Amino acid sequence: MMNNIYSIQKMPLLVFRGKQTLAEYHEEISIYQGNPLIEALPKILDEDSVIEQLQDYPVLDESERQLPAHLRLHLIQNVFELFIVLSHHLDLEQRFSRMIRAGYRARNPVKRDFWQSNQEKVELLRTGHKLSFSSCKRSTATGFTILGISGVGKTTAIESILNLYPQVIFHNSYKQYNLTLTQLVWLKLECPADGSVKGLCINFFQAVDDVFGTNYYYIYASNGKKTVNEMMPNMALVAANINLGVLVIDEIQSLTKLNIGGYEKILDFFVELINTIGLPVVLVGTYKAWSILGNQFRQIRRGTGQGDFIWERMKEDEDWQLFVEGLWKYQYLKHDCKLNSKFSHALYYECQGITDFAIKIFMLAQARAITTGTEKLTVGLIKSVAKDCLRTARDILDALKINDLHKLQNCEDVYLNINSFLEEEIRILNKNQDSLIKEEIISSELPKNNPVKPDPSSKSNKNSNSSIQSNKKTKTVNQLNPSLLSIADVGQKNKLSIYQSLKKANYICSATEYL
Q1: Which of 102, 246, 250, 139 minimizes the C-alpha distance to 185?
Q2: Cys-Cys with 223: which of 9, 69, 251, 399 at CB 3.0–4.6 Å?
């Protein structure tokens, strides 16, 4: 009867799925040796191997260019399967490779206290107590955030990189140990459309059930009837028991629909998952998510060890040239058109470095060339297709072309506007300095051995105190105020984004600087 109730009430959830395999162990570098959860993972890849395994060039049959028009209109869609490995894909793969293995370092199932430690950590989350380093081994997990404009290929790249690893590994024995456990290497979820914490917890249990065929949604969520405070520790318990390697949360900008207390709670929970049970968490979203992540910047930083990944639209550089050259091969027109700088620039100008638009413009230009009978690509054709077929995105693309900051600042999904965050940080800085100055003045005016209470009626005393406080405050604030807004303003005058301006002024360091 219980199973029947469960099957009726449980809502099906389609999740991104990967391979399932039996564990095969191999030797690892010294810091990873002796840990079956790491030794069962694929070997660490070099760049050439990453490119070979990630790239996807659909089969192209030159003879099909002579097929009838109605058939070639289907073939031009073949370009949607194309995946060209660029420099940022290599960077992202390296981060995932380090992060997954680092998360498993402190979670070794052949250690005597492994399962007890898991239970203790989950109990700490349940009670809200801080981690006791005397009883629990320190987490080695790290996480990071990926923010970028819609259409640059974040989700496609992440799923391709996750697919380099089996999703599920079944362990039976390891060396002299009888080891029967299941390892869920990765799980990718989308943040619920309403951005709710409860919705995310429910999605997690349903996703795990979808992968394993378990009843966690019924057992730990009571078919969604349990409260958030009950489900969150249960979510951590399940993640620990199935040896989850990394949790990826996509569309994190949906949290902006919540009030401050709502999104703070879930962001705090992500940090606790990293710091307590050692589960790496990757948050993925558009620039719109900056408004909430920025408010939690100082806290989230404690849970990030791979550096945040700002995925900007492509520049017209070597990566763009590599991308266009790969794309340009997939022509199904009777007259083959060779790529040149004019074509490359025209396509970049119309898509503004957004790869999704570039692929669609290239495909639709071929469709128009086929239907009109011209059977040849031209710069004019690319421009006309972009004008006619990208109407919903026209305002944003036009704003990007002329760097219209006023219009772009109103579109948080497209433009990384950190002015408000910088203003808030400076306000907090000044507020903290005000408090520090007051404390310094009080301590300096009241001698330790012979405290003398100032006479409030003394006019000279008031003037003296006022002068001291004013001078100290001015000096301290002038020294510590980083003038970030000034840097941003100068950058905008030079047609640089705020992110580029701060990076140029050495306020933003390379993600690998401290690795």
Answers
A1: 246
A2: 9
Residue 150 pLDDT grade (very low, low, confident, very high; cuts 50, 70, 90)? confident
Cα separation, 82 vs 371, in Å, equals 24
pLDDT band of residue 468 (cuts 50, 70, 90) is: very low
Q: Are 458 and 452 in contact (CB under 8 A)?
A: no
What pLDDT is recorded for position 44? 96
Q: What's the CA gap between 191 and 255, in Å, rounded?
A: 8
Query: Is the pLDDT confidence value at 79 over 90?
Result: yes
Structure tokens, 475? 């000096």
The pLDDT of residue 259: 60
> What is d(CA 345, CA 342) in angstroms, rounded to the nearest whole number?
5
Q: Are 131 and 294 in contact (CB under 8 A)?
A: no
In this structure, what token pair is assigned to residue 373? 């009978």
| Residue 77 burial (CB count, 10 A) | 14
pLDDT of residue 410: 57
Contact 377, 344 (CB under 8 A): no
**What ranges do the domains of the chain cover?**
2-9+17-40+87-293, 47-85+313-404, 419-481
Q: What backbone torsions phi and psi does residue 285 show, to the nearest 5 degrees? A: -170, 180
- Overall average pLDDT of the 504-508 stretch: 68
Structural contact between residues 82 and 330, judged by C-beta atoms closer than 8 angstroms: yes
Q: What is the pTM of this model?
A: 0.75
Question: For the chain, what is the mean pLDDT?
Answer: 78
Bridge partners of 55, per DSSP, are none
DSSP result, 269-305: HHHHIIIII---EEEEE-GGGHHHHTTTHHHHHTTB-
User: Of the candidates 432, 419, 429, which has an alpha carbon nearest to the alpha carbon of residue 484?
Assistant: 419
184-201 exposure pattern, b = at least 16 Cβ within 10 A, e = fewer: bbbbbbbbbeebbbbbbb
Q: What gap in Å lies between CA 97 and CA 41, rounded to an integer?
A: 10
